[in-house]
Structure formats: structure tokens, C-alpha cells
Prior knowledge:
Nucleoside Triphosphate Pyrophosphohydrolase, alpha+beta, about 40% strand, homodimer
Amino acid sequence: MKFYERTKKVDEIFKGKMIQLHVETVELPDGREATREVVRHPGAVAVLPLTEDGRLIVVEQFRKALDRSIIEIPAGKLEAGEAPLACAIRELKEETGYSSDEISYLVSFSTSPGFADEIIHLYLAQNCKPGKNHLDEDEFLDLMLISKEEAYQMIANQQIYDAKTILAIYYWDLLSKRD
Amino acid sequence: MKFYERTKKVDEIFKGKMIQLHVETVELPDGREATREVVRHPGAVAVLPLTEDGRLIVVEQFRKALDRSIIEIPAGKLEAGEAPLACAIRELKEETGYSSDEISYLVSFSTSPGFADEIIHLYLAQNCKPGKNHLDEDEFLDLMLISKEEAYQMIANQQIYDAKTILAIYYWDLLSKRD
């Protein structure tokens, strides 16, 4: 493979609840050595959930890494052995109470290829119907239904401030322009 | 602030070349305690660079976190005290040799709000003109110019596989549909 960096040594620095940190000593394509700091993450799913009247279901939650609350599409970590589609259905229901009979796979992507192996699998959930949510015990969030214009306004004022949500909103906008 | 988690203690686990890792003990909104694993990153810029004939300039590089090469828009870490626009101009030139007199700010986003504070500032560079590139000494990459159809094909076959690049390609597509 092009520019392959062979791993010569792995130092396992940290193993936490959500992530692990490794420092890998690699051989560069020109034979020299370098170190690469790599965060290991179980992977996640995110859902672009649309209601029957064409609004986007988003959640506001506090993110300690940013030390602020942001508004995001529903998402969550994959549990061990869990299929991404099952995780998407579960997280949508747990975080928002909504469910959909029309869930389809859109795209998968690395969030931070420079230092982390996290992959997010993004799904589209159309004609979502409301129900009761079930949050994890350390999860606190608010639910909102927003129009496309409100979504763009929230991107402009940085209430929406993460890559997966902005990517999903752009996809939503392209979807309507394709129809 | 909504759902604020007050930090009670910070354990500094690791300080590397690119990232730092902290484990923060926080007080949840209901008064209980939890820990949050937080990767600290200096932030980065990315550029959506378009040539005069309307193609996208991308680079293929090896990413140890994914253990494979992927095709991305040009991007790089902010140096200490560096303004994002200056970093965008520098990284575009260093990685691709291209430069542009028409660079504009698009949007900023957190890449992994669940565990990292990395923010990417995305710029649009139009009518880019070629020149000579200057890679960092441990940087190996290939340059490509691709059409929008090729970009979507590369997303479909996961040669393009990271959030910032897919987000930027969707933006590019929306831009043409707005004109």
C-alpha cells in the first residue's frame, strides 16, 4: 500500500471507558523511524432523523471536551458486537424517543484520521414518529425539531458545531435539491 | 449553561507531539460524579481548493490511525499563535504547491466532540494556481485533481473516508447548485 508505515513497536499508554491511547513507533517509507499517537475508539453511528413534516430531530448536550453544550444529530458509540444499523435504531430511540420504518445507510467516515481510529456510520431515518426516550444514566439532553433554515442559522452561530452534524445537514440540503 | 459539568479534578495522563490526554472528574447536573476522557489537540485548518478549471485538489496520504492511505483535502495543524487563515495558505502551499488569491472562510467544526477538543477551520480557495510544494520531513503524499463525479465515486468506494473531506465535497456540490 502506498506510503505504508510499518509498526515496529506499540506502547499502550492508557485504557479508559471510551478510548485507548497507543504510541506506535513506525518505519517511514524512506526507512527512518517516527512515532504516531493513536487514539483507539469503538466507533459510532449517527442518524439524520427527519419527521413526517420534514423537520430535523436534534439534541442539545454538554460536551466536556469543548466545555460547552452543542446541538447535534443523535449519535452514540457501538456496543461490543453490535451491528451499526441496530445501533442507529437504538440510539435514535434512546436519545429522542423517535423511531422510523425507513432507515437507510448513507456513508461512513473517520472523524480525525490524524490521531484517532473512530469511524462514524451515518444513517438517514425518514418519517420518524415520536415515542418515549430512555437516556443513559449519565446522559442529559434536550430535544429540538428544526427546519433547514434553522439548521443553517445554528451552523452560522456555532450552536451546531460538529463535523458529523454539519455533514448531515449538507446531505439533507442536497437531498432536497436532488428531488 | 445548560447541563454544565463542573470539573473537580484533572489527571494529565499523556503529553505527546500532537495530542495530550486528560481524564477529568466532573460533577453531573444531578450532583453525581463522572469521569470524562478528553484528548487535547492544537486545532487545524482544512482547505477546499478548486483549480481554475473547476477540479478539486486532493492529497493521498497514509494515516496510521486507520492503517491505510486515504484521499483528503489539504489540511494541517495550527502552529502556536498561528492565525487560521495564515495556516490555510501555508498548508495549501506546503502540501500541494498551489496558491490562491481568493481564499474565504467557510465554517469551523469539532471533529469528535465526545472525546476531543480538535476544531477544524475550513476555507474555500478558488482559482488555485500550481507551484512547487514543500512537505514536512515525515510527510509523504500524492497529489490529485478530481472532478465532482470522481469525488463522489471516491466517497462511495471509501478512498475518501474522512468527515472534513466529505463535508467539504458536499459544500462544493451545494455551491454549484446555488449558482
